[in-house]
Amino acid sequence: MALLKERPHAPHMHMPHMPHVISEPELRPLDLGGLLARGAAAGIFAGMGFLLANMWFAVSQGMPGISPLYAMSTVFHASDIPVANPTEAILGLTVHIALSLGFGMGFALLLVPLLRSVPALVLGALVYGLALYVLNFQILGRTVFEFFTNLQGPNQLFEALVHPLIFGLLLVLFFLGRPLERSRRAEPQPRGHRDPRHHPGPVRHAEPARADGAITNATHPDAFVP
């Protein structure tokens, strides 16, 4: 019998894992459907909070709690004076819900994709709410819906506060998960990091075969061959 010494196999060389130059969120298309759905839900929720705040303020000023709905019905008619009857209240509620949906979806499409952190999301919501006040009361209220700037109409200081602090901030609740999730995915992986999704387990190599078809034992460098 001859004693043959088998040369140990060289270790398999792996190239170091290089982090992606373009982060995963940049490669994914914008989810318009998801943003619109979140924006619609956020708009309804924030709009109801905004309406309740206006009702509370109306009662505190000695007016009926339903009077904000009368004021909102003037948007539909583009009239200068609201009419106090149940039909106008229902019409005002319908207009308010429709506007809340639109404003919520507008926030989701225009600002949310650009805001990458929670502080930025909060600041953007405050600016968005203040911009809605300027648009609705100071621009459209002076040109189309004149009741909004009438002395008998809504209180300007109160509206300037509730637009950003109530409507704006309530929108944030429906988008808190998106910036954090995006920032976690965008973090580069450390050098040499192996993603378990792409490397499910150790790489196995086939055992070398002898000329007679037998497989040698790679775990023992010294083997007796007959």
Explain what you see.
It is a single chain. This protein has 226 residues and is mainly alpha-helical. It contains seven helices and two strands; from the N terminus they run E-H-H-H-H-H-H-H-E. A two-stranded antiparallel sheet has the order 1-2. It is elongated, with a radius of gyration of 33 Å. Residues 18-27, 179-183 and 215-221 have low confidence and may be disordered.
> How would a crystallographer describe the biggest sheet?
2 strands, antiparallel
**Uncertain regions spanning at least 5 consecutive residues:** 18-27, 179-183, 215-221
Overall body shape: elongated
Give the topology string: H per helix, E per strand: EHHHHHHHE
The main sheet orders its strands as 1-2
Give the end-to-end Cα distance, rounded to a whole number of Å: 5 Å
Which percent range fits the helix content? 40-55%
- Main structural class: mainly alpha
Counting DSSP E segments of at least 2 residues, the number of strands comes to: 2
